[in-house]
């Protein structure tokens, strides 16, 4: 489509039609095709190439106050995506530009150019990397470790959900920044092996194989100084027990409770906060976008050197986006879960 051809187009997209109760079900969603209007002044139309599915999306499916509004019913779901501009009425974006935006869960996105950020693709880095290792998940790991938890060289660092998109990067950043010992948890023996053989973790354990407190104590016998929390629940409780005095936790996610129909059970050892002088600080990366430039500069160098590696679990077809999301919530991914449109 040329820049002067701004007629109607269609998009195939996923919509939320019911608020999930517990684990999301296929009946809570629908996949539809709809017409898009002609482009207005300052708007662009983008053919998506890759879509991101992430744990935080589960929270937006509930009609509850949070740091972002909930998804609307019978409206297209949203999420990170990368694609190419195929039509433009904006001076700032041209046909063929690679862009990053939040109109995921669909094959064609359209709207004001301000909602699309042009990317300068790095040599040897696939477009999909801007949805994880060079994007929000990588930045989350960077900010959580360095700014929120204040990791220092020599610290013993524990990361839960360590084989996921954030955790797999967080462990490597901890190592690159001089951590004395890096420990991770994952949900299978295969992922545990990957943590130590590929991502540079010093020790890791399968949290399904026993009591998390005991498993963490065995992996970090001298205690931990920093905890990067993606899981909450029994992992947070175990970290509180394992902390050395002055320990710091960056609380990024609590995936263990996202689909629970019962109120979350708080850790039963919160007195450790007082006894050990601990700091627990929650964060969402959207409030730290000023750190993106520094992160991309460092991460880009690490990628070029080969000292930062990543994995993708890729599902093909926009019609399979829901299944990719459900599989990701069950831990089926290694590294970043993506949909190749």
Q: Can you describe what's shown?
A:
The chain has 341 residues and is of the alpha/beta class. It folds into two domains: 9-132 and 311-340, Alpha-Beta Complex (Quinone Oxidoreductase, Chain A, domain 1); 136-286, NAD(P)-binding Rossmann-like Domain (Rossmann fold, 3-Layer(aba) Sandwich). The chain has helices at 56-60, 136-148, 165-176, 189-197, 212-219, 233-242, 272-276, 292-305, 321-329; strands at 9-16, 29-36, 43-52, 81-88, 98-101, 108-112, 117-118, 156-159, 181-186, 203-206, 224-229, 243-251, 279-282, 312-316, 336-340. Helix 2 packs across helix 3 (165-176), helix 2 (136-148) packs across helix 8 (292-305) and helix 5 (212-219) crosses helix 6.
Briefly, what is this?
The protein has helices at residues 56-60, 136-148, 165-176, 189-197, 212-219, 233-242, 272-276, 292-305, 321-329; strands at residues 9-16, 29-36, 43-52, 81-88, 98-101, 108-112, 117-118, 156-159, 181-186, 203-206, 224-229, 243-251, 279-282, 312-316, 336-340. The protein has 341 residues and is of the alpha/beta class. Strand 14 (312-316), helix 9 and strand 15 (336-340) form a beta-alpha-beta unit.
Q: Low-confidence segments, ≥5 residues, pLDDT <50?
A: none
Structural category: alpha/beta
How much β-strand is present in the residues? 25-35%
Question: Average pLDDT across residues?
Answer: 92
- The overall strand count is 15
Give the termini distance in whole angstroms.
19 Å
Pattern of helices and strands? EEEHEEEEHEHEHEHEHEHEHEHE
| Main sheet specs | 7 strands, mixed
Q: Give the radius of gyration.
A: 21 Å
CATH class designation of the largest domain: Alpha Beta
Report the total helices: 9
Could you say what the CATH topology of the largest domain is called? Quinone Oxidoreductase, Chain A, domain 1
The appropriate CATH architecture of the largest domain is Alpha-Beta Complex
Helix content: 10-25%
Give the CA-based shape.
Answer: globular
Q: Please, how many domains?
A: 2
CATH superfamily of the largest domain: Medium-chain alcohol dehydrogenases, catalytic domain
